[in-house]
Amino acid sequence: MNYTDTFLDNLERFSEKTIPEHVAVKVRQLILDYLGVTIAGAASTKDKTSAILNAAIDIEGVSPLIGLNKTVNIEKALLINGLNAHALDFDDGTNTGIIHLGSPIFTALLPLLRHKKIPVTEFLKAVVMGYETSFTMAITIQPEHKERGYHATGTCGTIGVAMAIAYLLKFNKRQKKDGFSAAALAASGSLKALEDGSDYKPYNVAKAALNGYYSSLLGYSGYRAPDDVLEGFQGFIKQMTGLDEVEIKAPLYLDTYAVEKAYIKPFAACRYCHPAIGAMIDIKNEYKLIPADVQKIVVRTYKWAVKKHDHTEIMGITSAKMSIPYSAAVAFIYGKAGMREFDNEIIQTQEVRELTKKVEVYEDETMTAAFPKVTTALCEVYTKNGNCYTKQVDFPKGEPENPLTEEEVEDKFRMLTRYAGMPEERIQQIIDICSDFEHRYMELFDVI
Predict the structure, then answer these.
(1) CA 203 → CA 191, 194, 278, 347, 429, distances in Å?
(2) Hey, where are the domains in the chain?
(3) For the segment 412-424, what is each residue's pLDDT rounded down to a tens digit?
(4) Model pTM greater than 0.70?
C-alpha cells in the first residue's frame, strides 16, 4: 500500500463535500479567536519583534503584521505572526490529536487571501482542508509521536499548511502530492522547547507556517518528490513514530469535521492545565475557601498532563502557563486564569508562590486510559482543619462537549485586544467583520 496516495485520495474525496453552515460558523469563530490571540501576542512580544525586524534584511512588503500596524514581506509575516499567534499559548487546538490547529493555518492563509484576492468560499474551504489534514495526520501518528518528543503543531501543522495552500490555489493532483511530500520532508518541531522556561514553543508554529508555505511553492513548481514519503525506514511515519506500520486514518474522524473538534480556550494557559483550573474555580466559588485555609492541593489527571506540567519552580510567564500547580494556585486565589493572572507581577507575589508549592500533581491511570476522549482532572483541596474539598472536570470549558458561546468568544476577543490597547471602536469593527466574514473579509486587512 502506498501510504501517501491513500492519505491524499481520502483527502480528495473529503474535499468534494459541501461545507455545512454550522462548520462555516465555527470557522468564523476560529478566525476571530486567532486574531485576538495574535493581536495580544504581538503586544506581549513587541520588543522581540522590533529586534527581529532590525536584524533582518529585505523586509519590505504588503503582508500585515497583525496587531502592529505594519506591513512586511510574506516570509517575515509568516515568521512574526506565527510566533505571536502562539506566544500566549491561548490559541485553538484539539486534545485528540495533541495539536494546535489554527495558528499555523491562519498565519499562512490570511496573507494569501489578501495578495491573491481569492473568493472567500475558496478560503473557507482551504481552512477546512488545512484543519482536516493536520488533525488526520496527527491522529494517525499519535501518541507515539509525542512520546518521541515531537510537537505535532510543528510537524503535522506543516503538512496541514501545505495542503491548505494547495487547495486554496487549486493545485492539480501531482502538485498536491509533491507539496505534501515536501512538507513531510520539512516537518519538524521538538517538545524540548517546553523546558527551562524556554520561549521557543511558538517557533514551532512559525516554522509550520513557513515550511508549509515553502513546501507548497516546491509542489507547484514541478519539483518531484519521493513516490511514498510516508512509508519506509526513512519515511515520515517511521521517523515520527518508530513504528513500521500504522493505520492511515481518514478525514471526518467520528463523523465530525476537525474544525468542529477544535477547542477555544477560555484560560491563558496550556490546555493540559484547563481541567484543573476549572475545578479549582468551582471549589473556590462553592466553598468560599481562602489560601490561608489550605494545607495542600492534590491534582489527579492523565499522563500527558503530568510530564513537563507538574513543576512548582516558575521561571517566567511561559513556565507559569505550562504549570498545573501554578495554574491551579492562581485559579484558586483569583477565581480566574486570564492574561493578568500569568503576568510577572502576579507570578512574583508571595501568596501565589507559596500556594503553588503546595500543589502536587499525579497521574491517574483511569484518566490516562480515558484520554483523549475525556480530559479529566480531579482536584482535592486539603485544609488545615482536616477537611477535603473535591471537584472533577471531565470536559473543560471550550471543548466541543462544553463549548464557549458566541458571546463568550467575543468577550475573549475583547479581553485580548483591550490587553493590547486597541480602541473599542476598532475592536467592535473586527468582531462585526468576522461575523459577516463572507461579505466583508477584505475590510479586515485595514483594521488588523
Answers:
(1) 11, 11, 28, 24, 30
(2) 3-264, 271-393
(3) 999 999 999 999 9
(4) yes
